[in-house]
Amino acid sequence: MDNEKELKQDQINGLAKELENTRTVPPPPPVTKYSTPYAPSPSIPSLPGMAKPEPAKPAPVKMEITTPPMPPVPSAAAKPSAQHSFYGGVRKTSDGTGIDRSIELADREKHNWPLEIPLVPTFTFESMVIGANRFAHATAISVIDNPGHLYNPLVLHGGTGTGKTHFLNAIGYALSKKFGQQSIFMTNGVRFSRGIQRYVVEGKMDQFEQFISKVQAVLIDDIHLTAVNEQNRDYISKYLGDFVKQNKQIVITSKYPPESLQKLAELINFKLDAGWISELKTATGENHKRIVKKMLADNDIILTEQEVEKFFKDMSLSAISRTIKRAKVLANVLDSAGAPAATFQQLFEKMLAVSGEDVESAVSVKEFSQVTQVPNFGRGEWGKIGFFYPQDNSNLMKWMAYCTGERARELGIKGGFEFALKSSYNPANIISSAFKIANVCDNKKLKGAVILGPSTGVCDPSVRENFYDILTHMLEIMLIRCGVINFEKIKAPSTYVKVIAELLK
């Protein structure tokens, strides 16, 4: 067992070394053109390409990803040490000017995305089941009572499904009552860094600085996905530093604790641990059950105690949330198609297969060798879909496409997808492959993507999960639907029910 752990850690260390060797460069020349900050004002003018979204109608927005950021590399240990950084280095541009010329004018014009994320109306403290995170809740209330002075920045960190985004939105809503909605700036690591880069390229930093000077509270979700490069790092450093100096409250969430993001902190010259750090913990036992029941009730889904236990006992809250959303999508699609009504119990069973896989499905019956070409399903009603697979597994691409269409037909779902492209990726460079896949999807204007993950024999499970996490984040921001298939589940009918739900949402 010890040898196996050492082997996995060697794999992780090798990946971290690869990122460090290929992406770390000497610090670039500082950006010297800054505008004088403007005095705070209750209203914020709209910037070009940066329309302020209505908070009551949250909707994702599309952005362009052209230069891969330096992603975190997960540790095999349960809690990373303070000496280990998940962040790579700064990306150096090819022409030596510090400007990323890969964002061409034509591409910029086709993307009209704001830096901001609309607050989610249902993510408030009133709708929150506090459970094991009472200390983090108390800290958040203290920040709301005395913003910009007591705990600044406030960093909330925890694994997937611990409620980071809910906390961040709840704080945002509470602060909006104090400062007004127009003075709250909610974003995430990707949009903040890439948005600044975009305005540098477009020569609109003066307008952006006018906008940001009027903000009183800044909330940044998933800062570990910040894309630092030569043209935005000094601006990011300046703004974060100015926010603290001007007593503007900063609230940050991260999948990892600040001690594991030391490299990122160095690159942007900002101390993530200078204020207060609260770890969000996973709900267990009765707290977990209470939250699950509330999630179901909020979506008008009625299950018995036995059914809740059967479907969701050992599932993370984030996975439960995705499952509920998928079931709602399938229920709506089937209803629109005039198919026989399916209960939520039946839909959960098809997706989770807790009683076993559907042995009558063609996915169970057929063999890989029997699928020799990509069949036509419908007339492209689902949009253009791309299929991605690990190198040396091109034979599985046709199987994925076939099963996606065939399983939809078995469920009674009408229409089909336009087979737009197939593409392999290198599992040996799994993290950078995530950004390459996202770039391909964006450049080809895909509506959705189906990704076959690498087998655990060639990729550590924790690294693979990080690959999924980064990829789904990127595609979600681009408004591209994403269905993920675990390599070991490629013959499971339930897998394709989940993929179809993602492609149709």
Structure description:
By secondary structure, the protein is an alpha/beta fold. It folds into 2 domains: 2-279, Rossmann fold (3-Layer(aba) Sandwich), CATH 3.40.50; 286-504, 3-Layer(aba) Sandwich (Rossmann fold). It has 17 helices and 9 strands. α14 (395-411) links the parallel β6 and β7.
Summarize the structure.
With 505 residues, the chain is α/β, with parallel strands linked by helices. It contains 17 helices and nine strands.
Supply the key terms:
2 domains; Rossmann fold; alpha/beta; 505 residues; single chain
Proportion of residues in extended strands = 5-15%
Order of helices and strands: HHHEHEHHEHEHEHHHHHEHEHEHEH
Largest sheet: 5 strands, parallel
Q: What would you report as the Rg, rounded to the nearest angstrom? A: 23 Å
Low-pLDDT runs: 1-86, 93-113
What's the overall geometry? globular
- CATH-derived architecture of the largest domain: 3-Layer(aba) Sandwich
Helical region count? 17
CATH superfamily of the largest domain: P-loop containing nucleotide triphosphate hydrolases
Q: Can you tell me the CATH topology of the largest domain? A: Rossmann fold
| Fraction of residues in helix | 40-55%
Count of discrete domains: 2
Round the mean pLDDT to the nearest integer and report it: 79
The count of DSSP E runs of length 2 or more, i.e. the number of strands, is: 9
